[in-house]
Amino acid sequence: MTPFLLVLSSPSGAGKTTITKALLAARDDLGFSISATTRPPRSSEVDGVDYHFLTPGEFERRRAAGAFLEWAEYGGQRYGTLVSEVERVLAQGRHVILDIEVQGARQLRERRPDVVSIFLLPPSVDELVARLGGRGTDRPAGLEQRLRRAVDELGEAHHYDYLVVNDDRTQAVAEVAAIIDAESRRTRRQQASLERVQALRRGLTELVATLSRPAEQQGKG
Question: What is the pTM of this model?
């Protein structure tokens, strides 16, 4: 099996990070690419585990050197996927799961034709607003901006290979897992099986050649 890149995107609050963590906990054939960011770490975050925390200058230096497979800016901070991180996971024979936004996913589709992309949809407007904390008359700061961004992000959904509605988390995880299993079995990713096909063809060709000889020639052989 040839490992591939799996991209999960969604509007904020639609569950891509939760589903990513659930898949990583359940499957040994997945590895996570640790993103780089210019934002400062939170108190519970560890450099090199949660993110690679870079200064803006270091991020720009690496970007200019081509160290990022994709990058984007959100809320005044930069985020990116390091080529070295992706190659690290692929070298382990595992698929790389990337939890990224639509800008980064667009860049990945352009640079890596082998990428498999899944867009996670919220079940409804009301549920998305509730997940963002906008229950009842309570409207947290920044809600309008996040909803405006969600409108733009949903406009990118038709570019993805698959759409999964995240109504029930368990069901959504199962659907994404089924996609991974199906994509793993695509002919182009089954080099060992393709080699077996060629071996079978050779064996059958030899058998047919033997059977097509006149009986007396077969006996002499």
Answer: 0.82
Cα dihedral 105/110/112/115 (nearest 10):
40
- pLDDT tens digits for the chain (221 residues)? 789 999 999 998 898 999 999 999 999 999 999 999 999 999 999 999 999 999 999 999 999 999 999 999 988 999 999 999 999 999 999 999 999 999 999 999 999 888 999 999 999 998 998 888 765 555 666 788 888 889 999 999 999 999 999 999 999 999 999 999 999 988 877 777 778 888 888 888 999 998 988 765 655 65
201, 175, 197, 176: which is closest to 188 by C-alpha? 197
Tally of CB atoms within 10 A around 8:
25
Together in a domain, 116 and 210 = no
Residue 156 neighbours by CB under 8 Å, 6+ apart = 9, 102, 105, 106, 119
Q: Are strands 95-99 and 30-32 parallel, antiparallel or unpaired?
A: parallel
CA distance 208 to 205: 5
| Burial class of residue 9, CB neighbours in 10 A (0-12, 13-18, 19+) | buried
Whether residues 125 and 194 share a domain: the answer is no
Residues 108 and 98 grouped into a single domain: yes
Question: Residue 106: which domain range?
Answer: 5-189
Same domain flag for 142 and 216: no
| Phi then psi dihedrals of residue 91, to 5 deg | -65, -20
